[in-house]
Structures are given as structure tokens and as C-alpha cells.
Amino acid sequence: MIGKVIKYSLKNINTDLIIPARYLVNSDPDFLAQHCMEDLDRDFVEKVKKKNYQILVADSNFGCGSSREQAPSAIKASGIKCIIAPSFARIFFRNAINIGLPIIEFSDIGKLKTDDNLNIQFEEGLIKNTSTAEEFQIIKQPSFLQQIILAGGLINFARKQIE
Amino acid sequence: MGLTITEKILRDHCQNKKAVAGDFIMAEIDKCLANDITAPIAIEVFEKVVEDSKAEVFDSSKIILIPDHFTPNKDVASAAQCKILRDFATKYNIKNYFEVGRGGIEHCLIPEKGLVQPGEVFIGADSHTCTYGALGAFSTGVGSTDLGVAMALGKCWLKIPESIRFIYSGKLDEWVSGKDLILYTIAKIGVDGATYKAMEFTGEIIKNLPMADRFTMCNMAIEAGGKSGIIELDKITTSYLESSNQLKHSFYSSDKDAQYYDTINIECSNIEPQIALPHSPDNVKPVSEVHNMKIELDQVVIGSCTNGRLADLKNAARILENRKINKKLRCIIIPGTQDIFLRAMEKGYIESFINAGAIVSTPTCGPCLGGHMGILAEGEKALSTTNRNFQGRMGHVNSEVYLSNPVVAAASAIKGYITSPENI
């Protein structure tokens, strides 16, 4: 995939910052997306739309806190197509895999900045920063998780099991 | 090579009889749980999974649905969410649906109802599902899609976690509880110190720690990023299970030569009650230090899945009996379940709370996550026995939440600022 980076150099961006509980009375991803990250950056949604950001880069332990799947759903519905961080909180990690939102564990986030254009080649395990002409190897997800990712998420994976 | 308790439980719940830490498995689950925030999405997922087949729920007695977060329904939108659970429970004859008035906060209610047993694999679409490790079960928080799929297949994908062993030794101060041990531990390793790992709590201190404190410790494993917290079955667990007429399940323990990711020794004799300062559960200081900061409070909350059990209310009542809540603040006390509420009433705790000037609420997660029943205004400060103090967690984005044990919360409610029970 090809996309432009929006970056928050903050550790432990928690699920309350991603989608505050006050909005969890409605599960519609498009509604949730309107309030995505608003307690961290009021202009997040507008920036993503206006500048067509598709890759969210953040520091370690991204998505810590609650199990709310509304967090990765809101990010996905806001237009973000991939998240890159040195590490993810474990429930956020599995939720992202389950809903088919690609996430990449990559520790050298200092090499990526807002407005950089990236070409991410999942099969090759490669991030190309076309703005700086740098290339980075990434560790591919284990084959078990690849099956869920390739199925497009856990729902399709489970439907195949039932068949 | 030996195995940890977590490896043994998970190996016995999957096809791969050689599975060890690091392996991915499709675990057969004993129970699964969702609440009014996570179940609506899980139900939608379930319907999508089964729509073209004749499949039903995998076992209507193993699914637990508890509306507890925004209940009693705080508005029309939350009422609609709860109705989805109720309708689903009726349609699929879900035996363990707990209506408002007959239930309570999920992680207080489930052990009370005997719905989790030692040696089981329990998943819940709520991050604090790790609570039941206190009973020697493998229990962990998952997402709504996981839960929806589990309701159809009775299975959940898991990576068997490596374990970190914590060994607690020494002697506990009178006012120090499981809450203080876990806050101290989180501060020591950080909010991502146990990410993807099982936290195995052991040592002399744990052997003598009451059940309520064990639930509190396992409950907050997630605040260190942990996949689960777990404590081996012993006399205290057995007597808890027997007292509530619950049958004993499989007994598991870690082998002496089990492989641990890390072993951390914690000497507890000099540990004071701990306070987590804004905006992170690992931003912890001893209460004596926080006392000197004279942090004036607008609100105190005693309750939640972390500290809403009868023993917690007993400890709070010990401080609040025949005393008055400080005029400058409001104190909100929330028994974890209807049964806890009733027993606290019989024991006179509720009367002490009301006479002191506290409000006693029906069981709800309400204020813990900034849902309802105690939202903070801009600039307000609360001391709470809950589990998270993220920015804006209890209300306005510029409000502050401090975390403590119930006796410190009660003492601070009297004084008006964060202080130790020693000072009243």
C-alpha cells in the first residue's frame, strides 16, 4: 500500500484518547470516526480527511487500556489504513488483526515523520520511505495470524471454519 | 522441561498437546462474557458468522451477558444498546444474562455466581476479565469480534503467553492491601512491563492474602499490559469456593523447573499505601509523599470491579463509621453486586456511609470510565479505588484521577485531601 504519514510521537496512546467512553453508546464506526483521537488532537479527523493521511505512526504501547474494539474501528473508519508503532497493547493488537486493520511493529519510528510518503510491501516485509529514499525491513506477522489477515479478518476466517 | 500453570491450562484446552509459550492455538473456551459496550458489536459479528449456516450459539449456558457499564440506562442510546443484549439473550435462551437489579459489576458478579472455576479458560470482551486468575483460571480480555466468533465456535485464537513470576515477601503494613501491591508492581515494571505476558503472583505474602485482594491484583494485570494475572489454588481459594458452594475444578500449578520470561522479587515490609497520580497507573508515589503535596479533592469514588467487594466496603466503613465526609467534596460508594449491597446493608456499612454523608449507588461501572454517576467537571480532582487514571477517564479532558485503596480513599474523603488513614 502507498500512503502519507500522520505521526504522534507519544507513548501509551490509550483507548480513552482514541475513542472516549462518552461516545460508546453508539457502535456505528462512522459515528465513532467523527470523534477519533479528539482528546489527543481535536483536528485529527479533519487533518486525515483534508490531507488524505492513511498511515498512523505512534510510539510504543499504542492502544493500551480498554478492550473496546471501537478504538481500531474508529481509526479504520476515519480513513487510516495502517498503524505503525514500536509495540501495541495486546487487546488492541488482536482487535486490529480481527477487523482487518493492518498494524506493523517497527521500532525505528524516528525515521518516519508527518507528511512522509510510504510504500509498504507487506509480502516482502518492507517499508519504503519515498520521501527520504530509505528502506526498512519489517518482521512479518506469524503464519497463524497471516491466515486471519489474508481472510480479511476473523469473521471470514470463522465462516470458513463453519463451512 | 517444566511448564507454567498458564501453559498447562492452555495446553489442556487445545488440540496441540505439545503446545508451549509462543505457540498459537485455537483454545476451547469454558465461558465467554460481554457487557453493554462490547456485546452489541459481538452480537452483530455472531450473526454475520452464522448467517448462511444453521449454526446457533455454541453453548447457551457458557455465554454470559451483563449490562453494567451505562446501566441503569443513562440515556436513550445506552438503552438501545442494552436492548440488543436482552433480545439476544431471549432469542438464544442465554441462561446467564443478568438483568439490572439481579446482577452487578461483571467481575464482582461472575465469581460470586460460581461462573468461573480454577483451571478454566475464560475470555471476556472487557479488559478487566483478567480478574479471575485469582481463582487459578486462565482468563483474559479480548475484543468484540473475538467474542462474537467465540459465541459461534466456542473457540478463541490465543498465543500461549510467557510468564513473569512475581515473588512477594516480607510483612504487610496494616493499611496496605492487594491494591497497593499491584500499584507498586505496575510502577516497578511500567504500563507495558508485562505486555503479552502472564503475570504469576506468588510468595509468602500472596499465600496469606485474602480473596478480595487477590481479585484486585489480578484485575489490574492489564494495567501493566499483562495478558492475564494468575494465582495458584490454595487453602484461601478452596475455602472461598466452598463457602459459596462451588465445586472444585481441575487443579493446576507451575512446575519447579518451569521457564519464566523473568522473575521479580518484591520485598513488601516497607511498602506504604500507594497512590497513582495522573494520568497513568504507573505514575505511583507512596501516600506519605502525596500527603505532603496537599492535593485537595472534589470527589472520592469507592467501588468498581477493582475494589467493589464486601471486604473493600468493610475497610471503607471502618474509616467512615461515626465520621463525616469533608464539606468540600462528594463521596460516591458503589457496591459491586446486589448481593454485596445487601450484605453491606446487613452489616451496617451502608448506614455508616449514608450517615457520613456519602451517596451509595446501585452497582454500575458508571464513573470509572466517565460513563455516568459521577462525572468530573473541568479542573476537578478525584481520588478513586478504580483501575485507570488516563486523561479524561472520569469526565472532562482537563480533570484528574488519582488511584488508591479503599481505606486511603475513605480517609481522604474525611480530610478533603489525599492522606493516609494514620492521619485521622
Description of the structure:
The complex is a heterodimer of chains A (163) and B (424). With 163 residues, chain A is of the alpha/beta class. Helix content of chain A is 32%, strand content 20%. Chain A has helices spanning 15-18, 29-33, 44-51, 70-77, 90-99, 143-150, 154-162, and strands at 2-8, 53-58, 82-85, 103-105, 117-121, 126-129, 134-137. A seven-stranded mixed β-sheet of chain A has the order 4-3-2-1-5-6-7. In chain A, helix 5 (90-99) links the parallel strand 3 and strand 4. The radius of gyration of chain A is 15 Å and the shape is globular. Chain B is an alpha/beta fold and 424 residues long. In chain B, helix 2 (39-50) links the parallel strand 2 (31-35) and strand 3 (63-66). The longest helix of chain B is centred in the first third of the chain and has 16 residues, at 76-91. Chain B is globular and about 60 Å long.
